[in-house]
Amino acid sequence: MPLCRLPNGIRARNDLLAAFVRVNSFGSARDLYREMVALGMELDCCTCDIMMHACLKEGKPEEADAYFSDVIGRGVKADALAYTKIIQAVCKEPHAKRACEILSEMKMAGFGPSEFVYITVIGACVKEGNLVDALRLKDEMLRHGLPLSLVVATTLMKGYCLKGDLDGAFALVSTISEMGIKPNNVTYAILIEACCKHAKDERAYDLYCQMKKMGMVPNVFITNSVMLALLENGKWAKVLNLFDEAVSAGIANVFTYNDLLYWFSRSGKLQEACALWAKMEERGVEPTVVSYNNLLLAHCKLGDLDAALNLFSKMSEKGIKPVVQTYTILIDGYMKNECFDQAFDLRNKMQEVGIACNEHTYNALISGLCKAGKMLEAYNWLHKFKLEGFTPCTRTYNSLIDGFSKRAMMNVAASFFQKMHKEGIPANVITYTCLIDGYCRSNCTDLALKLWTDMRSKGHLGDITAYNALITGFCREGNFDVALSFLDEMANVGLTPTAVIYNSLMSGYKNMKNMDAAFNLYKKMKEEGIALDTPTYTTLIDGLIKAGNLIAASDLYTEMIASGNRPDVITYTAMTSSLCGKGYLENAHSVLRQMDEAGLCPNVLVYNMLIAGYFREGNFQEGYRLHDEMLDKGLKPDDTTYDILVSLKFGDKPFVKASCMPT
Length: 663
Description:
By secondary structure, the protein is an all-alpha fold. The protein is built from 37 helices and 2 strands. The radius of gyration is 37 Å and the shape is elongated.
């Protein structure tokens, strides 16, 4: 409708503007506004309000400020509603600084901001991380006689939480509680999310329980957040309780199941993962590709690759297309089980179906080859992967450095470390630890210490693995003063020594035939509540037998069984070696019988030691019988076995004179 046909006065024009906005005809409203300006019509606050409302309704709050400035620039004085509307629009961007400026103008114009205005500006300040201004506005609001509402308090709590100041947030909870204001679902959701984010899983769980006591029903997002926080810290009992409550309440969704499924899989709990999968199907929860990936991870983690491949086939039957993560999980599983052909076949299949390898896929292949000691293949494949567009990262170099370090190829490992530096790829604690461990294994503790100093200068703190490498290295050298200084340093940096650390020290003392010092560490472990494991007992029993103290060794063996630790092949091998070395052949032979009873297959070394022991005593008949028994068990004699049988020597020492050899 042409403007000339409208009645005189701004009111008719504003009515038409409002009509356009009401039916979402924003383009027509803007055209009408421009015509009004072009004709030199006197605009008023109502015009401004309508156009700002149009901007908010259309989802273009940034344009509202332009209309506000245009109208005010034409001499129109804004009223309280106009100020409220523009503040609302500016805060939606959010542009807290501009909102605060307009709020000041509003007060200077003689208008008292409403509670809504303060809530809006405080919210914008919090969104932009400006907690100082948010708190200032809260104090100003209270001075003007407006009450502290739950909305304002909850918004400020969110501000505290975003800053990581949980104490400030909970202090505000106490304040409103004293005022008789009860937190609502939103309040609890904000606090729980913050607790989960800052690793306060127990506090998050307590808040969850408080909600239930107050008659509130935590939604699935809150439940999932608390479950994840508890899972991060292995609180399985509470997690399973939450899960059961979520299922009973009917709020558990596929994400709830997937979170729990992932952690079962990651923790190697295959049986529990399969039971959860069955429960999903029973409840009618459709597994997603993430669900399949999680269960695949569980099978691969335990090396059940046939089951993993079977599940992979079922995905296609269900119409779920595998993604790059699916293939990567399977490839990683095959590589860790040294099924290299199958892993690379899967990689080829990915290419056939048009799925490109990602960084994790390439790294799984490189890492698997390095762990298996196939360093030349790993290097060659890395070159091929680069041609495909793969850019090596820290993890890639860590795999290569670790592989070469474990094979005592320290010059090559060091060259990759230097290459990382040249290419601007940051080294992390794992990088340094691999090199430190390699140098310690190569008896180059001086170079290991230089790397340790370099690592610390870069701001990296050593972890348990790094300390263990150094302690083991210095123990191997017999330098216990330095080894113990690192043990003390661990406590100073807040690290608790593990059984692995103590085992390294005990092993060092055992090799130095200082069993008193080894047992002092054994007592210290017990005092500090560190659980003794099978390697701990193996080291001590081995040392006691070598020292000729069979009674103490037997007592410790009994304690080991009573504590729930089971001897392994290493334990039995060490016991056999020590007993044979001391001439206790019957005791050593009983160890062989114990291995059979435990369902463990003795290795060639165990038989070699026993055969050598009987040959040394001239009991060739028993020695040959053990050789036949070894063959019956499918064990293949090695060069040492033939040295014993043919040359009648074990190592460099012959057992008997040539004249005494059997014919």
